[in-house]
Records
---
Amino acid sequence: MRRFSVDARTGSPESGGGTRCQPAGSADMNGPRPIDILMVDDNPGDARLTQEALKEIDLPHRFHWLSDGEQAIAYLKREGAFGHAPRPDLVLLDLNLPCTDGREVLARVKSQPDLQDIPIIILTTSQAEDDIQRAYQLYANSYVKKPVSMDQFIAVMWSIKRFWCGIVTLPSRREAAG
Amino acid sequence: MNTATDILLVEDNPADVRMVLEVLRSAPRVCRVQVVVDGSQALAFLRRQGAYEHATRPQLVLLDLNLPGLNGHEVLAEMKAEPHLAGIPVVIFSGSRDGQDIMKAYQLRASCYVSKPDGVEALRETLQGIEGFWIGTASLPLS
C-alpha cells in the first residue's frame, strides 16, 4: 500500500496520510480552506502527473493519494490509521485497481448514506461504453478519460478546477454558497 | 465518435431556456437540445410516453429545481430509482442557493449542483463552464 499527502500551499508532505484537518466550511487566515482531493490510483506515475498538473494550475489544494480500493474505503470511513483523515471535497477514482476495484469502491461509497454525497469523478484510461454506463449507474458524479501526457493532464485538471471548484457548489461548500 | 451530444433541458423560465440554447449552439461541439418545461413532461420524455414515444434518450440532463407540478428533486428521485434512467448524469441548474436544496440534490444522486448566477454575462459564463466540462472533458453514456 502506498500513499502520500501534500499541502499545495507549502509543498511539504504530511506524515501519515492527511493528519492535519480543519472542520468543513472553516476559513483560515488566508481565506477559504484549500480543497481536499483524494486520488485513488495504483499507478504512481499517474498520481505524480496529477499532482504536478494540480500545482501547475494554481489551485489551493491538499492532495491525498492511495493506491488501493480497500484503503480508499477505510480512508473515507476514517477507519484505523485514517481516523483523522479529512473528508475529501472531491475524489478522483481509477476503475482498474488491484483487489477491490474502482467499481466496488464506487458502489460501496455510494450506498453509504454518510458518504454518498462526496463527489466521485472516475478518472480512467478505459473508454469502453460498458464501463462508462456502469459507472454512471453506480452513481459516479462524472467520468473523465485519463490523459496520457503532461499537457493533457494539465488541461483535464484545469477543466476540473474550472467546473468543480469554480462553477459547481460542492456539498462540502454549500453553506458558503449563499 | 465525434457525433452530437443529446441533452435534455428541463426549464420553465423562457429567458433561461433561450440563454442555454444560445450558449450551446455557439459552443465548439455540437449538441442536440430538447426542452421540456415541467417535471411531468421531463419524466414522460425520459420514459418515452405519449407524445415522446420517439424521444432520444439524453446523455445529460440539465434540471431546474423550481418547476410547475413535479419539482426538480422529485424528477431526480424518480429518475435515479429507475434502472434504465439512473445512469443518465443530471446537472442541477437552479436559482436556489439554499443549503438544504443543495444537500438534497446530492443525496438524490445529482451529478452536481450549479446555482444560476445573477446577470446575463455571469449566466453565460456558467453555461459555458457546464458545456466545457460535460461536453468537452467528461465522457457521457451513449444515448
---
Amino acid sequence: MTTFPIRWTSRSASLLLCLLFWHLAASHHWNLGLVTFANVPTPWAVVQAALGLGDSGKLMQHLSSSLGRVFAGYLAALVIGIALGLAIGRSKWAEDLLLPPLEVLRPIPAVAWIPLAILMFPSSELSMVFITFTGALFPILLNTVHGVEGVDPRLIASAKSLGAGRRAILLEVILPGAAPSIITGLAIGMGTSWFCLVTAEMISGQFGIGYYTWESYTIQNYADIVVGMLLIGVLGMGSSLLIKRLGGLFTPWHRPRGKT
Amino acid sequence: MSVMQSPQGQIDIEQLSIVLGDGPHAFEAVQGLDCRIEPGQFVCILGPSGCGKSTLLGALAGHLSPRTGRLRVDGAAVAGPSPQRGMVFQQHTLFPWRTVRDNVAFGLKMQGLGKAERHQAADEMLALVGLKDFADRWPDQLSGGMQQRVEIARVLINRPRLLLMDEPFGALDALTRLNMQELLLDIWTRIRTTVVFVTHDIDEALFLADRLLVMSSRPGRIIEDLRLDFSRPRTTELVTSPEFSRLKRHCLELLRHEDGRQLPRLNPLGLPLENTLPRFAL
C-alpha cells in the first residue's frame, strides 16, 4: 500500500513526462516514420493560445454552453437509460420488445445522427443535446441491464420470503444490487457524452468548446484545436470523477477489491 | 423474549411430486412424498446430494410449485413465499447494502412498522443471537457464523410458523458449526416454531432433531422416519453416547445403500444456474 503523497507524485510525474515528450517531439519536428510531429503545435504555443482564449472573454460562454448541452443530454440518458435498463433486465417481455431496435441503433456513430438530428428537432440546441444524449445512453443502459441481471436470485427469493412485494423488491433489492454497476455506467456515460461534444457542436452555434475546436480546424488554427481538445479532456475527466465520487457516497457498502 | 406461542406450523404433505427442468431435461426431483409434521417439531431431512431435500424445502417456502399432490401449512395450501415461512440458505442472503440492524428489521419494514419500533425489535433479536454489538456493521464485515446468526434473526423477527433451513451451517468450520447448533437449539426453546432442517451431516441431524426423515436418491422418497428421544437440553456429550452411535450406524447404512450415483446439487430455487450464451449483442 503506497501512501498518498507518493502516489500523487508519480501521477504528476506521468503527466509531466507526457508533456516533455510532446515538447521535444513538437519543437524538434520529430518524424517517427508512421507518425510525424512536424506540424504539431508545441506546448508553449498551446499555452499562448489558451491565454488568448482567456483574454477574448468568450471562454465562460464556451464553457457554459458546452456544460449545459452535455449535462442536459446526460441527464436525459440517465433517466431513460436506467428506466429502460431496469425494464429490460427484469422482464423477458421488455427485453424482446425493446432490445432489438436498441441493438440496431447502438453502433450508429454520433456523426451519422447529425442530419436527422437537425431534421427531427425544432432547435439546433435540442439537436446538439440529442447527440450528447446518444453518447451517454448506451453505456448507462448496458451497465444497468448488466447490474440488474447480476442481482443474486437468492436475495430476491429471501426478500419475498420476508414479505417484500414487487415494488419493495425493485427499490430494496434490485436497485441497490445493481447500483455499483449503474454507477460505473454513469461514469463511462459521462465520458462518452463529452466524447460526442465536438460532433454535436459541429451542428451550429456560436459557442461551445466543441464548436471552438471545430471552428479552429476550419480556419487551420492548430494550437487552438489542441486547447479545445485538452479542455474537453480535462472537463470529461473531472465530471466522470465527480460521478464516481457521488456514486461512492450512494453506495457506502460497496468496497471494490483493492490492489495489493 | 421467552414468549411461548400457541403451537402453530403443522405441515401436511400429500402425494407431493416436484418436477424440475424444462422439456427433455425435466426430471422428478421428489416423488410421492407423504408426511405430517407436528407443530413445533424439529425435523431434520437427511439424504444424499441431489436427492431433492432442498427442493422439498423450496416448495415449503413457496419458491417452487408442486407438479402433483398437496402441500399445506396449518390447513392452508402453500401459494408463493410468505413471511410465515422463513428460509435460511446455506450461504447467507443478507443485503450487502443494509447494516446488520436494517437487515434484521427488513421484515418489519415490509409490514410497515416505524423506524424506531423496528430498530428496537431488531436489537432485541440481535441480542438473542449474541450480536448486540454488531448492529451497525455491514454484513461483509462479519464472519460466516455471525452472518448466519444475523440471517436467523432476520427470519425469526417475523415470528414465522416454519423455519426452513437449507444446510445453514454447511459452509462453516467444525467448531463454529457445533456452536451454531447449540445456539440454534437454545433459540428454538425460546421462540418455538416448527423447524425443517436439511443437511447431509448425520451427526448434525441426530444432534438437533426430534424426528429424522431420510430420503432416497433421486427421485427423492422418504425411506426412513425416526423419532429421536434424546433428552433436551442436548450437549455435545450426546454425540459420544452408545445410542447415538447405533443410530448413526443405521443412517450410514441407509445412505451408503442409496449413494449409488453422484448427482449435482439442487437448491431451494430449483436447478443450479448454468452459464448461458449471451442473448443479445449489446
